[in-house]
Amino acid sequence: MPTASSPPEPRRRLGEHGLAWAFLLPSVVVFALFILYPLGRTFYLSAHANDLFGAPSRYVGMKHYTDLLSSADFRHTLVTTALFVLFTVVPGVLGALLLVLLMESRIRGVRLLRSAFALPFAFSVASASVVFSVFYNPASGVLNGLLSNLGLGPVGWLTDSKWALLSVAVSTIWMNLGYNVLVLSAGIGSIPGEITEAARLDGASGLRLARSITVPMLGPSLFFLVVISTVNALQSFGQIHILTRGGPDGSTRTLVYSVYEKAFAYGSSDFGTASAQAVVLMVVVLACTAVQFGVLERKVHYA
Predict the structure, then answer these.
(1) Are residues 52 and 114 in the same domain?
(2) Are residues 88 and 176 in contact, defined by beta-carbon separation less than 8 angstroms?
(3) pLDDT of 59-86, one tens digit each?
């Protein structure tokens, strides 16, 4: 029963709710300005045709989406995007896992190796892409120089459609290697030492210890890396723009780069088609994330 000096309960709750909204208001405003408004604007533009200056001119409904689904170029872009994700996520996560397991061996200088393998994390996409453009240079690049010493002919790493996507994927794997190694190293560090010691006392070591103890205990970290690497691969732009600009012959034109080409590149201002592609990209990201959470997370929990 409230006393005469205490405020009524409804008034107190109203004050608490008002204070909570006052603290939340800055975040809500930022979220609305930078997430909700651009998202709504994207849907609006995708349903409208635009003039030469990119301004919406008339309502066209689902026309941009139907045109995309019937376009062979767009289907090729989707396939290229899927291949790019496959070429970067699987080798990137498995390669980082292999390196971390090797570094867990009791060898000298392991701290130096951890720092060396984490070094790519310090490079920006632009600087790393410039370095790889030097490696891939057809005339004076390091890779073709090695092939020449082996008596092999030069390879057009970025100019041959058979090699361009794989070359960009290799550079992307290297850029993400440092982050992947740091995440998995932290995951191994969180494994209780008594579990590992008990397994060693039972005779487990090397590959058996990694297969039976380390890798299953790293399930949450691996799941996190697969999801994050997939989203990052679907959104990759900088290395593609610097190394190939979507070429040759569209062999490295992913969905993100196609959005850029339609909206901004070469004086284009087809914001309607670009917005429709952006919506498709959002749906692809959400679908991949939902599948990964529905399949991989369940396996992690039941492992």
Answers:
(1) no
(2) yes
(3) 999 999 999 999 999 999 999 999 999 9
Which helix (H) or strand (E) is 119 found in, with range?
none
Place of tokens 């409208």: 48
Query: How far is the CA of 245 from the CAs of 6, 241, 258, in angstroms?
Result: 68, 4, 10
Whole-number Å distance between alpha carbons of 28 and 213: 44
Please name which of 275, 246, 287, 110 lies closest in space to residue 181, comparing C-alpha atoms.
110
241, 232, 280, 246: CA torsion to nearest 10: 20
Long-range contacts of 192-200 (CB under 8 A, 24+ apart): none
- pTM of the complete model: 0.88
The verdict on residue 5 lying in a domain is: no
Q: Which domain holds residue 295?
A: 71-302
Of 114, 118, 224, 238, residue with least CA distance to 171: 238
